[in-house]
Description:
Blueprint: H1 6-28, H2 47-58, H3 60-67, H4 78-100, E1 105-113, E2 119-127, E3 133-140, H5 146-159, E4 167-173, H6 183-199, H7 203-218, H8 241-249, H9 251-264, H10 268-281, H11 284-308, H12 314-334, H13 342-351
Parallel strand pairs: 1-4
Antiparallel strand pairs: 1-2, 2-3
Amino acid sequence: MSTITEQQEEKYLGRLTVILTIVRFLLLQALAFRGHNESSTSSNKGNFLQLLDWLKMRDEGAKNLFDIAPGNNLLTSPDIQKDTCEACAKQTTKAILDEIRDKKFSILVDESHDASIKKQMAVYVNDEGHVIERFLGVEHVSDTTSLTLKEALDAMLLSHGLSIHNIRGQGYDGASNMRVLFFCYGFLQLHHTLIVNTVNTSCKRHDQLAQEHHDNLVRERGKNQKTNLARPGNTHWGSHHKTLCPIQLMWKAVLEVLENICDDGPTSSTKIYAAGLLKQMKSFEFVLIIHLMIKLLGKTNDLSQCLEKKDQNIIRAVSLIAATLHKVNDFRQHGWEEGSFEGSWRAAIGSTPGSGTIDE
Length: 360
């Protein structure tokens, strides 16, 4: 039966402190821990081990702590790294919950995709009365219907001991079907997301889209601008104007890629799915709404970008709000600069069903 002396315990705590310092740094910077080759002869062992070696070269005390440590007590194994990460996450969550306690709070729920294109629900908790956002967690969901999000949100709040009755504000981005307001934009956003996901699913389709757009530029049928399709959820609560404009600029290329998927898709379900999206893109309703929303969001884009800046002057922000309200009201009363709503109507008529173009 082995006994641990007080000196051994102090050295263990010293090594643990060094490891926790490295873990906290990597977590704060959102850096990967592991490397492809972590052997002693590797020139790059990964961020965790490389940072530990760098620290030992510059701190003689840290070097001595690890040089004299037994091989099974270095605290550098992947399991130890995972355990320390989980411990940091629990302590961070505990600090957030201690800050909220029984106060009223608001939530922000955003949809995001990971590298495997799986849908995730990211939840922020806002302490009411303070502009403070605390990231509470990420929950994997099978879809972004209102029922699924409600169940995931209830489970997350319950696991952290938060009451849904204390919620005083809710905000949803990407998963906007939690609210029925602005149906026309919800329709556009949903189909926009489906189109981008279908076209950008594989590198081959993404490259094909870029080539089709390049060919259109050469034939002078597109604008000479570098563009890339983006999902509505990628705005990170910013303006959606920048996600809709690429669809308009690359309209012909997107249609051609969807047509190719209809003809040469890997499975019958993929072909049917692409055919449905192609039909929606050529519909009068979709084209009319995308014209309407690009014009409308273009008038609020300056205000959106202004409010995203942390060092924004409050007086300038208030003046921009007044100016934006005036522009939106003028847009409501008089429509397009050409004189009326007929501008978008004519553009939609000219873009459907078979012309393959979407005019300004």
